[in-house]
Every structure is written in structure tokens, then in C-alpha cells.
Amino acid sequence: MKTLFMRIFLILMTLFMVVQLWIFASLLWWRTHPVDRSMFMRIDAFQYPDETLQHKWRDYDEISNQFKHAVVAAEDGKFLHHHGFDFEGMQVALQRNEKADGIVAGGSTISQQLAKNLFLFNQRSFVRKGQEAIATWMMERMWSKQRILEVYMNSVELGANIYGVEAASRHYFHKSSKNLTREQAIFLAALLPNPRYYQQHPEDEKFRFRKRFIAKYIRYSQIPT
């Protein structure tokens, strides 16, 4: 029995190390190469094989600064000042969830969200959160803040089968993401917590609140230059 447990342990440790090496190698490659497919995109393509996935890469300088400011204001106001984890934000989110007796706030940084989008899946579990933390730690040490934001803007889901700001800009406004106005950037950033739902319910009060929130704080958000 002891030998069996040891074999199982060694198998699990080997699988764990293989996953970490895969993530490390992917992050190393993506330091200088566009991300063509994230894990979320692959899952989406598998679940909806008859629907065309919309995605087009754009370099950092080809994306409107309005959208960069809007995303940071919406998702991670301390983006430039943390190393992947906003522990104060996590504590606030935990308190809000406990008060509401449910999940009403996340507290994940842009780096954490990107790690999940690139390598993991959307279902909550301690294993997924642990792996997300490891991937985030590696990413923050291998990539600059500008690269993290660049990849995030190019891979985040912004509607049904719509990934990245360029595809979203062309879908909603029929224009390049470089030419997004302030109001259009705020609209796209406000979609982020639940893009498929808000895409179909643009008059939802939570969505309207998020647009007002982003409009209020967009001027204070700091972005990589």
C-alpha cells in the first residue's frame, strides 16, 4: 500500500512539473510572439464548433490609450503598483462576498485574469486558484507590465466568440481599436465581468453602473508607457 501511494504521489508530482514547464515555455515564447489562441479560446471553439471565433492581434501602440485607461480603471486600479496580487483588494472582495452570502466581487488583478485566460478554465476550485497563482507569479517576473496589458487586451473575452479589443471594436463599432473614442472604450471595458450577458442586455443596471464607475475613474488610471 505504501508503494502504491508513493507511485501515485510521483505521478502527480510529474504531472505538476510538466504543467509548470508548459506554462514557463509558453510565457517565454509569448514574450515576443503574439498569442493566437488562449485556453479560453480553445474551450470556446470546442464548445461551439459551428461558430466562428473572432480574434485579431494588435500591438500595444496600435490600441487606443482610451481603452487602456478604461480597462485599468475597470479591472485593476493598482495594476502598475503590485506584483500580480492585490491583497487589499482580495480582502475587500472577501468581506463583500461574506456580507452578501455569495460571490459578488472577485478581487483578481489583470495579471491573475490573464493567467486564467491563457492556461486555465473558468470554474472555481482551490486547484485552479493555486495554479493561477503560480502562473501569475511566473508571468510577473518574465513579462513587463506593458506586455501583460498588451496580451490581456488581445485575449480577453468581449462577447460571444469575440476575443480581444480589435475584434470587439470591429464587431460593435466597425472601426479599428486604435480609433476608439472614450465612450466606446468605456463600453467595451464595462463588458468584462460578464461579456456574453451584457452584450445581450446593454440596459442592465449593473452594466450601466459599471460604465458610470469607469467614466468617473478613467482619468486617474495609470498605464504602462
UniProtKB/TrEMBL annotation:
GO CC aspect terms: peptidoglycan-based cell wall; plasma membrane
Origin superkingdom: Bacteria
InterPro entries with a match to the protein in the record: Glyco_trans_51, Lysozyme-like_dom_sf, PBP_transglycosylase, Pep_trsgly
This protein's UniProt keywords: Cell inner membrane, Cell membrane, Cell shape, Cell wall biogenesis/degradation, Glycosyltransferase, Membrane, Peptidoglycan synthesis, Transferase, Transmembrane, Transmembrane helix
EC primary class: transferase
Membrane topology (UniProt): Single-pass membrane protein
BP GO terms, sorted: cell wall organization; peptidoglycan biosynthetic process; regulation of cell shape
Pfam families: Transgly
Membrane-spanning residues: 6-30
Cellular localisation: Cell inner membrane
Ranges in a coiled coil: none
One Gene Ontology term of the molecular function aspect: pentosyltransferase activity
Pathway info: Cell wall biogenesis; peptidoglycan biosynthesis
The enzyme's E.C. designation: 2.4.99.28
Domain Glycosyl transferase family: 51-216
Signal peptide positions (record): none
Catalysed transformations (reactions): [GlcNAc-(1->4)-Mur2Ac(oyl-L-Ala-gamma-D-Glu-L-Lys-D-Ala-D-Ala)](n)-di-trans,octa-cis-undecaprenyl diphosphate + beta-D-GlcNAc-(1->4)-Mur2Ac(oyl-L-Ala-gamma-D-Glu-L-Lys-D-Ala-D-Ala)-di-trans,octa-cis-undecaprenyl diphosphate = [GlcNAc-(1->4)-Mur2Ac(oyl-L-Ala-gamma-D-Glu-L-Lys-D-Ala-D-Ala)](n+1)-di-trans,octa-cis-undecaprenyl diphosphate + di-trans,octa-cis-undecaprenyl diphosphate + H(+)
Protein family according to the UniProt entry: Belongs to the glycosyltransferase 51 family.
Task performed by this protein: Peptidoglycan polymerase that catalyzes glycan chain elongation from lipid-linked precursors.
NCBIfam families: mono_pep_trsgly
HAMAP family per record: PGT_MtgA
The protein, known as: Biosynthetic peptidoglycan transglycosylase
The encoding gene: mtgA
